[in-house]
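Sorry, explain these tokens?

***
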Amino acid sequence: MQVTSTYRFARISAFKAREVTREIQGRSASDALDLLAFSPKKAAVLVKKTLKSAIANAENNAELKVDTLLVKEAVIGEGPTFKRFRARARGSASSLRKRTSHIRIVLSDDLVPAAEKPRKKRPSSKTARSETRQPKKQPKTVTAVNTGEEVKQISAAPNAPDPLKPAEPAAEAKSGEEKE
């Protein structure tokens, strides 16, 4: 069975209020009340008031148990816009639009609330792009100067000698002096 409650002409923009109602859809009524109690938004107070009214309707009018109730729908519709004017420089005026909304909450006892599954975190778009665009690095082929052989340079240690540079003759001269 379904029970509804409506708060008409709420003095908040529908765009701002929809943020809160997205969070409570599909939750049990008690979980939704807990979530709204700790939300810092103005819309949370208005939606909580409507949700409490819907719960009271379910208990008193339809004789349903609160433990079995789910938030089947939480819909925010746009209400009329109040048009006002603010005085501006040189006698001109600018318009202000004070928006209203209609909050409708539908509770149902047909479904049993499913346990929430933790959401999988998607990799951020920057890391995903960088992984897909960069080709795998192939080891460089370098020709050694002294021997003329091709050598694969993988990743050299920080203090390793560069294979492109010729060997220092000073070390050979010292060893030659010692032999004599």
